[in-house]
Prior knowledge:
With about 230 residues, the chain is an alpha/beta fold. It contains seven helices and 14 strands. The radius of gyration is 20 Å and the shape is elongated. About 40% of the residues are buried.
Amino acid sequence: MDNNFDLLKEICRKACHERSACEQGFKALMNTETIPQIMQVWKDNWDDVYRSRYADIIVTWMARFDQSMMDEMRKGGVYVNEDREDGYVIVSNPGRTVSVGGTARAYLFTAAEVTATDNAQVYCRTSGVKVTLRGHAYCHSEARDAEVTAYNFAHAEGQMQCTTYNAAEVVIQGGTLVDHGHRRIAAYGGTRVYSDATKGIEIGGQARQYPISEVKSEKFLAVQATKGRAATAF
């Protein structure tokens, strides 16, 4: 039996035990015979892989995976810290920016940075992440301090510190939004929206809108101005 396969299957078995994984998913895992088959089980049960203690265990072990292990994972459509146009991309390296495009899905398991274009999707639930969206890219954030910058026709939702340009669309449920252009903004859950616009902005719940001149941090504004100069026209 392949050493990489034995290692990964044992890691997953222990992770399932700690996670108290569902019986069906665990049975599917135990019936695998190759690493690509394990990757299919991951994708079939991705919510467990991404959102639970299982993710912490896998990320801890990933630092020890060799190139041959990564090659086998790629065959199953799962990639680690790679620039991709397709597949599931696990982002666990804070040392570099991962770029995804096409139909790729990037999942930030640790504090890291991702740039997404085309119809790529980004999912983050960890503090300290930075996400840049262009084209029709999408981001779902569960981290209130996640820095999300949306250009063109990008779409973002969840909790975040967001800056919008062009015709971006954002549904924000906590955090802060600084508006330099949008198609639609819907803000709820105590969000602070800084914008001088009225059209295309919905404010509900405990959310509040303030003039953009009231953004407090000069450093924050300087960063946003720099990003604005880099924005692409559409």
